[in-house]
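Q: Is it fine to ask for two folds in a single conversation?
A: Yes, each is treated on its own. Send the first.
Q: Here.
A: Result:
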Amino acid sequence: MDAHGDPPEKVAKARTKYLRTPATLVVGSAPGDSPLRTAENRDAVAAGVQNLLLAATAHGLASYWGSCPKGANDVVAELCGFEPGTHVAAIVYLGWATDSPEPPERPAVQLTVVS
């Protein structure tokens, strides 16, 4: 286990994940001038990342929204040149799909109208 309780094989996989994709985007959320503004920044960045994922899919790219490894936020933010206090909101992996997985079976939607 590493200092954060992760098994060695998980740590090794995380250290090479960026090598298995053509493009890796690290997305940060800047600190605000108040706790509320910091939270709003984080939420706005999350919405932007979702739009990015939708656009990637629309253009035929596969995408994956990953999190910064536990305890690595400050190191990753510094590596990316982000200002101190930046929260790494997403590590987005983009590339071309190698297969087309079938969507999972879902139960039929049950709709109840209350008037």
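Q: Second one now.
A: Result:
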Amino acid sequence: MLVILSGCAAVGKNTVINTLLGEENSTFGFMPTYTTRAPRPGEVEGFPYHYLTEEQFREKIVSGELFEHEFIHTSYYGSSRKLLAKALASGKTIIKDIDVKGAVNLAKILKGEVKVVTIFLYIGKDELERRLTGRGDSAEQIKIRLGRYEEEMSYLDSFDYRIENVCLEETVKKVKEIVLAEQNR
């Protein structure tokens, strides 16, 4: 099963994923995304992204390796067929974070190939600004990301589940409950 976690920038997608992956005897695996953006402090090659030049990214598009790709916040992001196959071969429940458009597109593309569950994490706009500022985004990046808030929130009803991420422990608990319920369907 592939669990797609989406929502606005700085909503806590990677924090939730890191918590799930870091639990003892975790049943979750991870699928990284390709991107052309530079790594943030603490990010390493392969988790949460494979960092490419624009030329390398275009080669992945031309070769057909990407299921979907988007240009978001000044950089390209894309989901790889090879990386998904490798992740699913682990036998774990794969969790992937992806932007809202990419999540909707990927879920449609994969329908019938693999079970996909989509979860939208959200927070209020004021909290989003606080988190963006707190993680050290530039004023330009904060403006761009806040400017996309309404558009991203407009996708809320396109997802199987919605969780307001105000408490990490509660959000992680809800994600695990959703996954268990979906596994038992």
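Q: Anything structural to flag on that second result?
A: Two points. The chain has one domain: 2-183. DSSP finds eight helices and ten strands in the chain.
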